[in-house]
C-alpha cells in the first residue's frame, strides 16, 4: 500500500518496468511498476537473514495476473543478484512454481545457485541439470514415505492374513522387514523435519557451470 502513497524510491529499471523500493519495519519491499498502465506488475517482500551479512531472504513474491508468464520473478531476482550484489535466499517452503523459478534462475549466466543448511552452516552443490531431483524439497521425500508406508502395511497384512506362528521363519522374516521399513520411515521423517526448518536455496554472483 505504501507504494501507492508515493513513499517509494526508484532504484532501477527492468525493460519497461521501474523498480520501486521502500523499507518497512520488518521487510524491504520491491515493486515492478508499469508506467504505461500505471500499475504494479510484481511485488516482493524481502528480509535480512539473521547472522548472514548481505543475505536477503524471500518472504513473498507475487505477480499481477496481467503480467504472469513474462518471467518477471526470474528477471527481478537476477537484477537483485547481478546489479545490487545481493545474496538471495529462498523462502521456508517451495511451491512447484517456486521450484521452477529457482531452476531458471540457476541457469542465468553469472548467477550461482547452491543449497545451504542453516543448522550445520554448510553449503552444498546443486545439479542445475537435474534440479527437481535434488533432495532439498520435503514434498518429494514425503512421497517416498507414503510408498514405504504402503510396503509396510502390505507386509503387515501378510502377517495377519497368513497367521504365521511367531516362531516360524516366515514370521521372523516379515517382522524384520517391517521393523526395517519403520526405521526407514522414522529417518525420513527426521530428514523432512530438518529440510523444512533449515535447508534453503541461495543465489549469488558467480559461475553456474
Task: Show the helix and strand layout.
Elements (H helix, E strand, L loop, with lengths): L8 E6 L2 E7 L4 E7 L4 E10 L6 E9 L8 H12 L3 E3 L6 H11 L4 E7 L4 E4 L12 H25 L6 H30 E7 L4
Parallel strand pairs: 5-6
Antiparallel strand pairs: 1-2, 2-3, 3-4, 4-5, 6-9, 7-8, 7-9
Q: What keywords describe this structure?
A:
single chain, 209 residues, alpha+beta, 9-stranded mixed beta sheet, 4 helices, 9 strands, 37% helix, 29% strand, elongated
What portion of the residues fall into strands of 2 or more residues? 25-35%
Strand order of the largest sheet: 1-2-3-4-5-6-9-7-8
SSE topology string: EEEEEHEHEEHHE
- Helical percentage: 25-40%
**Global structural class:** alpha+beta
Which shape, going by the Cα principal axes? Answer: elongated
Annotation, overall tally of beta strands = 9
**Low-pLDDT stretches:** none
**Taking all residues together, what is the mean pLDDT?**
84
Radius of gyration, in angstroms, nearest whole number: 23 Å
Largest beta-sheet characterization:
9 strands, mixed
Distance between the termini: 40 Å
How many helices does DSSP assign?
A: 4
Describe the overall structure.
The chain is of the alpha+beta class and 209 residues long. 37% of the residues lie in helices and 29% in strands. A 9-stranded mixed sheet has the order 1-2-3-4-5-6-9-7-8. α1 crosses α2 (96-106) and α3 (138-162) runs antiparallel to α4. It starts with 8 loop residues before the first strand and ends with a strand.
